[in-house]
């Protein structure tokens, strides 16, 4: 927790905190909600660039912490920003239903299925971004470019599910359809946790070989 506090106070770029609050965009009537996931992926990238420019890796290296703990602090920051964003969006998704706003014509609504798929999108982005970044400890742009390709592809697929008749139940808020979506949400939670754990292990292994 001390490392997370240090990351939030010294490393988290102000714009990343702004992006975290953009979960409220699920209230917009016609908007591709998967773009919210793009903002949640830009937040780590901007934060890692900011950390590089302020020599955070060198500063952390002189602290009484291991490289594994340094990586763990960054991973906790990424997870905190992304989960905060999604949790912050939940009340707005519920308000949307309370206001009886029409179904989103652009793509998938903010249903449990969307949250499950969104977590998987984040998980895939994080493992590619973090594992690539910690090969050198400073090439954030290259890492983001590598991770953004599957990120964009998965965002398109998530939105496309709303336009596939056989998967129309994923875009519904009817009680019976919400129950069908719960396994997708559960799979997303498990997948996100597994991918983040794997991202941490790979990142630590690679960062241990980096000569600062």
From TrEMBL:
This is ABC-2 transporter permease. It comes from the Bacteria. InterPro entries: ABC2_memb-like. The keyword Transferase does not apply. The chain crosses the membrane at residues 12-28, 71-93, 113-131, 143-162, 182-200. Keywords: Membrane, Transmembrane, Transmembrane helix.
